[in-house]
Amino acid sequence: MNMKVAIYCRLSEEDKNKQSETDDSGSIQNQKSMLLQYAMEQGWELYNIYSDDDYTGADRRRPEFNRLLKDAQQHKFDIILCKTQSRFTRELELVEKYIHGLFPIWGIRFISIVDNADTANKGNKKSRQINGLVNEWYLEDMSENIRSVLTNRRVNGFHIGAFALYGYKKDPGQKGHLIIDEEAAAVVREVFTLFAQGYGKTAIARILNDRGIPNPTEYKRLHGLRYQQPKTKNSTLWKYFAISDMLINEIYIGNMVQGKYGSVSYKTKQNKPRPKSEWYIVEGTHEPIIDRELWDRVQALISQRAKPFDIGTIGLFARKARCANCGYTMRSSKNRGKHYLQCSNRHVAKDACIGSFISVDKLEQLVTRELNRLAAEYLDIDELEQNIEFSDNLQGQKNRLLSDIAVYEKKVAEYSKGIRELYMDKVKGLISDSDYVEMSKEFATDRDRLERVIADGQKQLSEIEEKQAAGDNRRELIEQYTNLEHLTREIVETLIDYISVGKRIPGTKDVPIEIHWSF
After folding, report:
1. Which helix (H) or strand (E) segment is 360 a member of?
2. Which of 84, 104, 165, 379 is deepest in the core (most CB within 10 A)?
């Protein structure tokens, strides 16, 4: 039978020789050429070429890498061919999971031609593991070295971001230094001046939008910077939070502020906020846009306007109500003693949004009525019908687990049989004692690893069976909140994911809402 091969290529460095973003880099082209020639010499049939450009070997979100794994699981090909094992992954965990774990189960052979990795050759498994370990050390050492260099540059006040803050641009004559971008800086000065004159943040956003001034994200795009952010409705408009963040950013008074976010691990690009005490703040690193007098006046006004967060009526639907038209989170306001929720987008520009608007009291009544109706209806319907749907979902998970465990158990039995047969070969003198120890150790290692996978699967199976025995808990959850007259923040947090609020129906007092429950 003619073997089908899938070729995988990856380039980790920022590409320098592409004519356009859609082109392949020279390195990728060279990899393809080398691998295609090798596959042709072996007489294999090419199934597909999977190519990730500009991705690191530790990035698990590589689109083509994940498509390759999905196709491998469906056994659309027989062989995965790479230039080196590190092109496939630099993580030892993924080497063990796929190259030594799932690929043999799926019937996939893995080959990397430069470092001679080949899963069909039992003798070089240790070299593959050593390659994986070396690559893992490389990632960790590289991460530590980069972090050390970046920390040093931050401490010394050098700018290390990919893009300068709005109002500044990178100094072409001095790496890590910012210079003023006068076009954007004029807008920054106007924002600070308007706020000092008593204008609110939303009012300032509207002024800028009415004049057609692009927000910082759009400004980067218009000036040819490759700023990666999805384009959505109203994404070019100034918003409340853009103004709010600008007014408290010390970079505008000449201080370099960095390290507000830190990476969780060198294995992921996920970042998390860091406390201000861990930020890197160096004073006087560049020319200020805002003078100290105006800055101090603005900070004093911000301090005066700051209000403690009220978890009572005002905060009842905080971060839960969204405009049905633009999806923007609705903000609270107060008029004549009554509290309202409104979409700020209707204030930031003309025709930016239909401007959903509803009183907190009205929304509370609608949600309470719907919750009581849902509770009564849920308690009246046939529980068996509900539980069948619930159980079917769990049963599907259980069936998938049982299928996976069966495959693993079959493989464990094969390894155990292999060890027994090796022992008989040793007894018969067909293999030496040292060969027996070496080969049986490899079988035993693989068997032990799969047995751990089976144990994890059995644990998940037990959890599913416990859920099936306990039954559907949605009824129990609803029963806690029946016959309600008023809501509490706890109820809203527990039961509601978010509420979509529309615009009042003309000629009526009705405001359409759509509640997305958490259960």
Report:
1. helix 360-380
2. 165
